Amino acid sequence: MLGILVTTGRLLRDHWPALLAWCLVGIVGRYAAIQVAGFVGATSDIGGALLLPLAPLIQLVSYVAMLLVLRDGLRHLGAIAPRSEDRAERFASFVRALRDGIVPFVALYTAYSYLDEDRRSFALRALERRSEVDVVALVGGDGEAIGGAPQHDFVIGTVLISPVSVIIVVLAFALRWALGREKVKSNPWISPFTAYLEALWVVLTLMMLLEAANIFSTWASSRVAWAWFIDVRTWLGAVFAPAIWVWDGVAWLIGQIGQIVLLPLAWLAVVGAIYRIALEADMPDLTEGRFTRVRSHSVVRRVEKSLRSRLEPTAYAVRLMWRAGPALIGGFVLLFAIVRLLDPLLTFALTRMIGPHDFDTFWFAIGNALFLIPALLLQPLLIALLAGTYDATLVKLVPQQPSAPAPAPADVPAGPELTAR
């Protein structure tokens, strides 16, 4: 853990201006993407759905840029895969890192409710814009107002969970697959478009899966079996109250494990997918078994290769964490928890430093900007911690330098028994 702290401090010392700049780009870019998507979504639900995936994509771009800025300071990573000095090759590595990080990052982004937060912000902005349009139409007297407001033919956000989303996902995935890596290599200018297509189908797919899970949960809660389950729990609490305490404690513990342990490990897997270091050990072949008989079919082979390319970077990262051992990973989890704990502490200290002010003239005007200060301070620290930890997991993969040869023994003068004849 001490080595991780030393590496993290050295990375922050050498690269903090670039980290701060890219962190600001990610925060402002995500906010701008949501605002633009909401503005368009007020009048076109499909347009809003097409623009909303830009929010996590821009955030990922900032993280990838910060991690690549830190790559020059990662000694073990540099020993395994030295970074090219060619600008074209560096841009290509940025594109590859962005491509490999989209699926695990968006999965993490969705699992920890960041995507739900984007959806809520998108819906609020779209409703605000629609209210502005309604007021203009009502005051303008153009005859569209019925019952005090114009009529709209769609509800904001419904296209995100409709058959239209399925069509968009299929088209985006098909177009992304048709472009392929070879075409991106030969035409680098299309790489931003392919990254957008990748983010589009992944984000919309996860949104639909979340909505399907919510629908199933609502349906299950209305079933008779669920009512029986609640009755059994109530009866058990009345008969033996400690059982309910254990029940609630286990549920609380599972939630805390997800936040304290799984979240930092998921972030480390994303970092590993972005850096994409090929391990010397053989990874399990994902194509063995029943799929080997259909390899000759070119379409199946291309789809198989496309799916493997999205899974292998994360699989490599998980394998690295397993090899690093519990001591290193446990220390990283502890440091990650400490960094997250600093967020509410910094917010509390910031409000106490500023002191009481009027809500309308002060907090409403600049409150949101002030509360970005903890994020601007902690996100670079978190990225440096992740990069330093990932570099520490590579210690066993660094090729060992050959030891210096032992000095030749000094000449020993021959004894008389060897020279006399």
UniProtKB/TrEMBL annotation:
Transmembrane segments: 19-40, 46-70, 154-179, 199-219, 226-247, 253-275, 320-342, 362-387
Keywords of this entry: Membrane, Transmembrane, Transmembrane helix
Signal peptide: none
Residue stretches in coiled coil: none
The keyword Transmembrane is assigned to this record: yes
Stated name of the protein: Uncharacterized protein
